[in-house]
Design a protein that fits this description.
There is one protein chain. With 144 residues, this protein is an alpha+beta fold. The protein has a single domain (5-141), classed as Sufe protein. Chain: A (Alpha-Beta Complex). Helices cover 49% and strands 14% of the residues. It is built from six helices and three strands. The protein has helices at 5-16, 20-33, 80-93, 106-111, 115-118, 121-141; strands at residues 55-63, 69-77, 96-97. The protein has a three-stranded antiparallel β-sheet with strand order 1-2-3. A hairpin with a 5-residue loop joins strand 1 and strand 2 (69-77). Helix 1 packs across helix 3 and helix 2 crosses helix 3. The longest helix has 21 residues, at 121-141. It is globular and about 45 Å long.
């Protein structure tokens, strides 16, 4: 499964940093650059359970040039590092055909960043909950 150029760029940028403090700052900066989720979209239905901080993911399915339904999503969190993780997930998932989303090996792709070893157990569980939520949203959007 091919990943986006945007995600590959994040992987390459991660490799430029020598220490995890710099990588955390980079992830936080990715979150700062992401547009905020409007308050009206911060609904209970959009809330992700299993995260220590508040997290909202709002899916949008749009047709690509080939007529395939593709997943895009907006997201937000009250924690800056989690906003950054949402930005990383947007780079990994946004624009992918909904049928392909569940086939993305998120653990392997995120493993390329080494996040699992450097996130707290709560953040790691929250990241897994966000991945599960995105897979569920894609499955719901792809009734085939």
């Amino acid at each position: 499964m091919a990943v986006s150029e945007e995600f590959e760029e994040i992987v390459e940028n991660f490799e430029l940093f020598d220490d995890w403090e710099d990588r955390y700052r980079y992830v936080i900066e990715l979150g700062r650059e992401m547009p905020p989720l409007p308050d009206a979209r911060r609904t209970d239905a959009a809330k992700v359970e299993g995260c220590a901080s508040q997290v909202w993911l709002v899916p949008e399915v749009e047709k690509d040039a080939a007529g395939r339904d593709c997943l895009h999503f907006q997201g937000d969190s009250d924690a800056m590092i989690v906003r950054g993780l949402i930005a990383v997930l947007r780079a990994l998932y946004s624009g992918q055909p909904v049928a392909a989303v569940p086939k993305i090996d998120a653990q392997a792709q995120l493993g390329r960043l080494g996040l699992e070893q450097h996130l707290s157990a709560q953040r790691s569980n929250g990241l897994k909950a966000m991945v599960c939520r995105l897979n569920d949203l894609a499955v719901a959007a792809n009734p085939a």
